[in-house]
């Protein structure tokens, strides 16, 4: 069974055509005759794309075919491109604690709030979260800032201080980055 679900919404003729050639496609073809199906059933599917004659509000992953006729090869190409975009977008999301970090937009968020980050802040968060242990300032200077350890600087401390303030202000989270005796850590 394929894991890519192509939902044809209120477009019976297209559903019938695609259902005929389904075994030659890499998609499960699903017929949706009502908005309730889309809102209740389709959203439970992990990997889906909706094709309809017009965009349905509050539904992600849609293609509108308001311009007809279209060659079937062009339609399949559009569907494949949309799936690739969705896959790229999904791969750019990293879960860290109770947050989702979008690497493309450099936004970290919860269901309620979002915070725009700088590239260095993203790199710091990723590095600390991957290590899972306390990381000293010298290592952060070398790995994130690419500084030499013999340079006297307070860059790391300053950036971490500002990042912690941002998290406190936006998310009311004082413990996102923990200061340890030997460095910093995200648990």
Keywords, please?
alpha/beta; Arc Repressor Mutant, subunit A; four-stranded parallel beta sheet; four-stranded antiparallel beta sheet; 10 strands
Give your account of this protein's structure.
The protein has 187 residues and is α/β, with parallel strands linked by helices. 39% of the residues lie in helices and 20% in strands. It contains six helices and ten strands; from the N terminus they run E-H-E-H-E-E-H-E-E-E-E-H-H-H-E-E. The strands form three sheets. It has a four-stranded parallel beta sheet with strand order 2-1-3-4. Strand 6 (99-102) and strand 7 (107-109) form a beta hairpin. The longest helix is centred in the middle third of the chain and has 20 residues, at 72-91. The chain is elongated and about 70 Å long. The mean pLDDT is 87.
First-last Cα distance: 38 Å
Structural class category: alpha/beta
Instruction: Give the helix level as a range of percent.
Output: 25-40%
Averaged pLDDT: 87
CATH topology of the largest domain: Arc Repressor Mutant, subunit A
Q: Quick one: CATH class of the largest domain? A: Mainly Alpha
* Biggest sheet layout: 4 strands, parallel
The number of strands is 10
**Outline, from the CA principal axes?**
elongated
Total of helices:
6
Task: Give the full name of the CATH homologous superfamily of the largest domain.
Answer: Winged helix-like DNA-binding domain superfamily/Winged helix DNA-binding domain
- CA-based gyration radius: 23 Å
**Which regions are unreliable across 5 or more consecutive residues at pLDDT < 50?**
none
